[in-house]
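Sample entry (408 residues):
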Amino acid sequence: MKKAKLIRVGDFQLGEDERESILEVLVSGRLSEGPKVAQFEKEWARYVGTTYSVATSSGSGALMAGLAALKHLMGLPRGAKVITSPLTYIATSSAISHVGFEPVYVDVDRRTFGITPENIRALLQNASGPDEYAIILPVHLMGYPVEMDEINRIADERGLVVFEDSAQAHGSRYKGRLTGSLSLAAAFSFYIAHNIQAGEMGALTTNDPEINRLVRKIKAQGRACDCLVCTRDEGYCPQLVDYQGQEDFDPRFVHDLIGYNFKLMEFQAALGLVQLKKADWIIQKRQSNVKYLNEHLAAYEDVLQLPVYSEDVSYLAYPIVIRRPDLVSRKELRKTLEANGVETRPLFGCIPTQQPAYGYLKSQYEGKLPNADYLGLNAFYVGSHQYLTEDDLAYMVEAFHKSLGGRR
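Predicted structure, serialized as tokens:
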């Protein structure tokens, strides 16, 4: 088979609707946060099934702003412990660290890649005290929801809060409800390779008015005013009555928290609104592609673990695990697939044992996260995005046939 095309892990096609949305922003003359951002927040909250949504410049921004809000709301000290996944994109752990918390890792399920209630319970049973841990931050990796009912039950028993990382699970369902609506708060990413795409954008969802208020402040450099009714030309803000007597008062430049600049531009929100209208089609197309690949690669299940198929999963990509690394090398398989025009990515790596940035934790976690360690070395993914044609899928299958040496 000649390398006649490149099947990307993710793709984005700028259609007429997307072009019109960008042009509308340009013509409006409003590039920074404005009506498009407000509209996206409203529609995203409605889609997910929460009362509030706050748009941010990235998924990392949503994670950091949400964790910072919990820090203020709960009065958490620096070094507070957050139970999370060792197998995910490093942004989750980085957000925890940047806010001043400590990530604590428990092992994952080898089929669906998320942390398990059993492993969380085992960790908590060995806790040094009832207040050792503060937050559980599960990750719905590759679109697979974690067991949220049991995780929420554990959190209630222990007085912890749950904050979902739903960056890779737009539209995934857990017992009839969408991820991002299953806990106190959740973070999403609309990165270019994700299911709902806007280039770079994030959002936090919640039903809690105080978290919504705090995140809006924190993402705007801790601005004291988070309302939309200020008569700013007159220096009046109904929330800041204590400051009204100051000479030349401007509520936009009064800050009562140390925050970040996680605001975004109207362009991302405009693209997000167009994508949201296509959400059902995007999810169904990705599911159809996963089903096709599973059926046509089933002959390799003795050496490859293919993804669990479910109509509740909104697939970020097509994840594969090497079952027999003694027979099939991930490195060589990826290399051959790439040579045959199929782009691949490793499944992130086990953060405390395989990511250099967290190398200081390696000795602490060595041998304690066997599934995450194995997946970090032997799992990878290829594309299942909505722009793949049946010819593309057939091309991918043929690339696997050639890469695996006709092993069928």
